[in-house]
Amino acid sequence: MDARLGVRAWGVTLVLVAAAAGSVAVVFATGAPPLFVASGVAGLVYLSVVSWRSGGRFTVEAGGGRPYGPGDSPEIRDALLEVCDRTGKPLPRVVLVEMDAPGAMVGYDDGRPLLGVDPRLPRVIGPEGMRAIFAHELGHLGADIHTDAVREHLPTVVGFAAFWTVALAGRGPLVATAGNALFLATALVPHPRVVPLRYVLGLGTEPLALAASRYANRHEEYAADEFAARAVDPAAVTEALYRIAAVATGDNDEDVTGPVPWNADRSLRFALFATHPSIESRAANLDCELPEWVRPHRPHATA
After folding, report:
1. Could you give the 3-state DSSP secondary structure of residue 112?
2. What residues does each domain of the chain span?
3. Of 36, 115, 288, 292, whose CB has the highest number of CB atoms within 10 Å?
4. Under DSSP, is residue 248 helix (H, G, I), strand (E, B) or coil?
């Protein structure tokens, strides 16, 4: 793996940690009760630890996942066993879960590796493609999931500190309580129409921090691609990514995560907030050409 990818991802993570720590200090220095600040920090740490240790289980349960069984596609088991043998990664528990686009995702269930797989995936990319995608997902086990959990809530902390400093500090307990309740409500309701309100309350600081976090996400995706390319042919990674994109619905969470169809919006919003780089740039990072069957379609090229 290019060491610069890891350095950038960790660098952004540490900068966000420092920004969040500074935000907490500002909230405390401008009159927030010590118990309030301590409770907020403790809650943040708790949520981050839970996200790291069990985020995979929460995701597959939300998608209605079920355990992989003897009657399910043997290609999934065979591809995963082969990849684990090649990479030395631990064999994760497999859960079948329908996704917006057929794919796979890795996480932890109480600290144990878990792999969510869309049951349609074998039909879309075949055995070689599954080995490539599974190798990519296993490449996330370890530091990537840890740093994701650390960064997950930090942008919201930065946004709240800005809101507190400008609108609540020194305004009395009634205003502070009402403001805290309003901001907390927007944080607990991740509806697309509610999130912009929280961004406005935080004076735009949260989306700036989120863009930095997503920049780190994209570098972690490049690193996982490179990990996979050491276990399988790099061209197989590119081929699998394009085949998934070819059947993607475009209804992915936030419309910027994971594979997107070629006719999807590749706007500035996508460039700033996507958790995954465009497949074109991922292929270029692996020094791979577009697959022959892709070239006539002229997929979008983005940074």
Report:
1. strand
2. 1-303
3. 115
4. coil
